[in-house]
Amino acid sequence: MSKELEAFIEYITVTRALSLKSVNAYKSDLLAIEEDLSRELVTLDTSSLLQYLSMYNNKRTLNRKLSSVNAFFEFCHKQLFTQEVTKLKFAKIPKLLPKFLTYQEILNGLELIEQETWIGKRDYALLLFLYASGARISEALELSLGDIEGEWLHIRHAKGQKERIVPLAKSARSAISEYLRESPFDKEFLWCNYKGGKLSRISAYKIVQKYLNVSPHVLRHSYATSLITGGADLRVVQELLGHASLLTTQIYTHIQKQDLKDTVDVYHPLAGKTL
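RE: above sequence
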């Protein structure tokens, strides 16, 4: 291992206090380059580095290697080991469309829930709430009884500490009210476990997985997708979801375009035909 690489490993271990897992990842990435090329990393030019890294076909793996290389050379420049900063561009990874459920698929899942017990009523209310509010599961589990104010939901523990208020559908409010009436506990949090304590993230995941076979976050995507395909303005959806940037919300426009295409394919007389 070159002295520059040793200095970098010491820097991220002591000064930056990165986790052992992160330190080992950096060390593995960078040491492999030195050993494979039998050269000190600091002496390699951009062309040599790119040629070596081109062996990685998986773009996510490649970007991890690039991140390690860029961090190393930024450190070397600050320590005056190099005169110029070597910074390699990351590979572009196409955005995947978020997984979502249709309204009918969600209804089918809700029908599987036996509501004879208060636990069943809680599960039903939780699934309906997540689809009706678009709340992140972390936000939902922090809600107190007072956070539902009439027709509105006040999300105080939002990502990035940005509070927001969103309307909550009547069906979701009714299901929550029935669940609360049947619950045997006086509780601080809206969603509780069978002992009356705060429902955990893993328990919430298991509930959604049991009836819908997806993660809770898919219901958030389903909420946004239903709004977009229904004609909602993108900026309104951004506000409802609590996205800091409209760029994050724009991924749903691909779903809208596909929905428009499917509609034309089904209903337009010229779709799929040649004259």
